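Quick note —
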Amino acid sequence: MAAVRRPRTYAWLLGSVLLLALPFYLDRFWLQAGLFAMAAAIGAIGINLLTGATGQLSMGHAFFLAVGAYGYCVLAGENSVESGHRLTGLGLPSWLAAVLAVLIAGLAGGLFSPIAGRLRGAYLGIATLALIFIGQHVLFNARDLTGGFNGRTVPTLSVFGFDFDDTEVVVAAVPFESAEKLWYAGLVALAAGALFARGVLRGRPGRAMNAIRDHRIAAGVMGVPVARYRAAVFVLSSMYAGLAGVLLALVFQRTVPEYFGMILSLEYLAMIAIGGLGTVAGAVVGAAFVSLLPRFLDRYSDALPLISAPGTGGVSPGEASRYLYGAAVVAVVLFLPGGLTRLITPVTPGEKK
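Predicted structure written out below.
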């Protein structure tokens, strides 16, 4: 066992050093792509706790990302006028606004948790799908808060006087702007979220969640408070989504209601199905695959067959990526039920294949 763990430890150390060094070598396009992947990974960890580990199907994950993103904008923004609309902002310190936005996303999940604690399967999926329609209606019509169709500008994150903006900070002869600065903030958020989720899954709560997923009635007989656990995991998943929404908003620098729709929720389900259900590594791997694929296709569309630039009449990078998501999900379900992480993680005795 020690021989197996040692190469894995070395791989984690090498990967960590590589991630820390990437801002010194990558251009802004790939740094932003990496930040999108980090935000996606945080959100995917949350939905994997809910769907992969506890067996609760959620189609409304994008709603809680929107709560986090717009909550941050309202809390940290100032009263202003954009595109002819007067926007409301509380002007709180941006670091405090980010924390409160995550808590508000958890509160939104808490308000829905009584329903989540009592429904399961397709019924819960349909109920959470309603959140998407409600959220889209609010985002497009609550213009004082959201800016309506045009969205609103995202305030710059500032932590104790250090601004994550485009003001250059030269480090080892490399100019650090917003993308480089946010890279390390994203790494910290992803590492904290991954370690916390790993501790939950490996501890007593994780065993209870898996018992609820595998056999709900038996879990209740063994003394597991099924409804309470389901509600709590839904709140936790919503907070992960809120954190992902805050990071996405900071990377986009402008929130747009159309982004937080049903397609985004489906992409998160594809992430955990492709990467591997019920594991932190599966969420991260699946998020990297799903979030980076369209940007890779967009960057190299001129050199790839059957793919053309958007608006030219051919298959756009976004459409091609969705076709590949679908093909990947089918391939994983048929040939690799454990997800892509099964390729690098050996099956231990007594573990489900």
